[in-house]
Amino acid sequence: MSQETVPATADVVEPPVKSVGIVKAAGILGIVGGILLIVVAIIAWIAVTAQLTAENITIPDDAAAFAGEQVTGPVTAYIQADVINKHALEASGGQTYAELPQDDPVRATVMQASFLRASLFTSVVAYGVALFAAGVGVLSVLFGWALLRLASVPVVVRRSTVAAAP
Fold this sequence. Notes:
Elements: E1 8-14, H1 21-55, H2 74-91, H3 106-151, E2 156-162
Antiparallel strand pairs: 1-2
């Protein structure tokens, strides 16, 4: 009987064939950009809240919710805009600004109510954009972190055959 030689195998560690520098750079940019988006979103949220609070708007008692509270955020701004619309429609007999005759004296009141509502809705939209920016920032940080992790995977491991010593 002949004794067969079984080749031994060893793991050979080789550097990646392609450079991963661009992946690392993209990961770092993603993290930095994400952090900037989150910071800007927080600043925008605080600025809009400060402006709304400075207006010292109190929600009237006939509101659907938050009666007597100050307008300081997106929900209270939306509720106040709804109350303004309700009052404007009551004053105009259910007609909007465009439906009222041009010489109707109530038209100026309805127009001013429309402008106030538009301003409040602008703040609601600003809150939404800030929240969206923060969400994109969080995702960007997570994707950047994932890219950095992928780029730091040590090396490609390839099995090779090593002849056994006689």
